[in-house]
Amino acid sequence: MTTFNELNISQPIMKALENMGFEEATPIQAETIPLAMEGNDVIGQAQTGTGKTAAFGIPMLEKVDASQKKIQGLVVAPTRELAIQVAEEINRLGKGKGIRTISVFGGQHMERQIKALKDGPQIVVATPGRLLDHMRRKTINTGNIETTVLDEADEMLNMGFIDDIRDILKNIPADKQTLLFSATMPKEIRDIATNLMNTPKEVKVKAKEMTVENIDQHFIEIPEKHKFDTLTNHLDIYAPTLAIVFARTKKRVDEITDGLQTRGFRAEGIHGDLTQGKRMSVLNKFKNNRVDVLVATDVAARGLDISGVTHVYNFDIPQDPESYVHRIGRTGRAGRAGEAISFITPREMAHLHLIEKVTKSKMKRMVPPTYQEARRGQQQAAADKLRKTIDKKDLQEYHETASELLQDYDSVTAVAAALKMLTKERRNAPVNISSAQPISVKKAQRSRDNKGRSGNKKFYGNRGQGGPKQGGRNQGGRNRKGNYQKRRNNRKPNS
Ligand SMILES: Nc1ncnc2c1ncn2[C@@H]1O[C@H](COP(=O)(O)OP(=O)(O)OP(=O)(O)O)[C@@H](O)[C@H]1O
Ligand SMILES: [Mg+2]
User: Fold this and answer.
1) Would you say 274 and 219 are in contact if contact means Cβ atoms under 8 Å apart?
2) Nearest CA residue ID for atom 3, ligand 1
3) Cβ of 333 less than 6 Å from ligand 1
4) Where is this region: Disordered (predicted)?
5) What is the CB neighbour count within 10 angstroms for residue 114?
6) Parallel, antiparallel, or unpaired for β 42-45 and 123-126?
7) In 97, 222, 259, 355, which residue has its Cα 20 to 30 A from 135's Cα atom?
8) Coil, strand or helix: which one is 119?
9) In angstroms, rounded to a whole number, what is the distance separating the alpha carbons of residues 458 and 306?
10) How many CB atoms lie within 10 A of CB 307?
């Protein structure tokens, strides 16, 4: 156990940590904060929800001179929502030191953003596309940046963002500090990363599994056409406080959302095709418990920290084991418990085993709940409401009417009627979700292999000029343009 005191953190930040209720440093914080404060480049890997944001935020803030109204810290994050969230957390941590952090991302008014950048924030959190836009227009001054962080580094280096990241880093002096964080870091991506940095220290918080152990992981083997009914049955029985349902495509997200709404659930969808305003409002409703089920593509898989998410459903199993880790990591955060339930079609069983192998975790088989069980679940929810009302003990004025009722009917019938009225009976409208191709291991495996190869091709293609771990980022692949093969063409919609 390490206290923040032992980490030589300045008073104003100690105060912020206290206000935020952080008592002890998490292992990734304890290990990386000192290294980063000494000025090292750091690659930090630790499970989801274990406080990586503060692990890079604190040392970055410690370096900032608050009297200088110049950008001294830069964080790059893959999605807009994550950029906003990270900026909020760094703002909370840096408030006492008088440090201002802003977020900058696509879909936002350009002129307003330019004005905000000129206004003297010391830290900027940005998505790659919009950041590059500002760099090209010279509307961001990168000359005073001391620390650059790539949050969810593997995701950004992996997908189409790699060229963007290299271009971004070209705008910052090569001898400045670079920090890279993620819960997952496939080896080939780590090699690419190492090449962009100055002899980084690598910290990997040791864990038996890639996933967090306080998440209960289950799978349900089920034909595609039964997935939706199984989902609604499950939601009725387990009545999650907040649930996130991940689906493979934007179209399926829309269809599942419509279907859930038809059946009376408070559900909303989020994906890259929605306007920024809509994305924000959906997420806010979910955070404020005005929506119970968030249906999402992988745009919501990385980094989002929403307290109270009790259940994560993989309506469709993700292609990459890494995506699985991040998706289910939206629950079970900061030591809380969580449930993850993945729907696997019979033809995808081999893929499930691949995920288990890579993540070194096991999913327990669950039988699909029946409609009768779901009805029973709904009644239980109604009975709970009744119990709570009884516990309040303010029923005196209802006693007379209740007694009259019991003269006409027996008590079981009377209570059954009350339960029926309280039960949220679902409209059992048929819902059709358009079919999806099952994921096959072969395809998934190939994609993993390609990932490695394309990374290699790009960076080690010309070994004479510096392979991985051979020095600073200017010697490596950073200044060369290559044809990184985009693995998925629909994966770059977020900045
Ligand atoms: N030392 C601490 N003590 C208590 N809570 C903490 C501490 N550090 C961070 N937290 C809280 O834990 C939650 C998860 O932190 P954070 O979002 O940084 O996790 P993460 O490791 O970045 O996860 P992910 O891999 O999903 O991005 C946040 O709500 C954060 O405020
Ligand atoms: Mg994070």
Assistant:
1) no
2) 22
3) yes
4) 433-495
5) 15
6) unpaired
7) 97
8) coil
9) 37
10) 10
C-alpha 150/C-alpha 44 separation (Å) is: 10
| pLDDT tens, residue by residue, 337-353 | 999 999 999 999 999 99
367, 222 Cβ separation under 8 angstroms: no
Q: CA dist 16 to 10, 252, 311, Å?
A: 10, 42, 30
Q: Rounded to the nearest whole angstrom, what is the distance from the C-alpha of residue 255 to the centroid of ligand 1?
A: 32
Tokens of residue 67, six digits: 């009297």
Tokens of 478: 């950073």
How many Å lie between the centroid of ligand 1 and the Cα of residue 93?
13
Rounded to whole angstroms, the Cα distance separating 111 from 139 reads 10
Q: Which two tokens stand for residue 196?
A: 């962009």
The residue with tokens 């950048």 is 117
| Tally of residues, the chain | 495
Nearest to 240 by CA among 289, 303, 305: 289
- In three-state secondary structure terms, 74 is strand
ipTM of the complex: 0.99
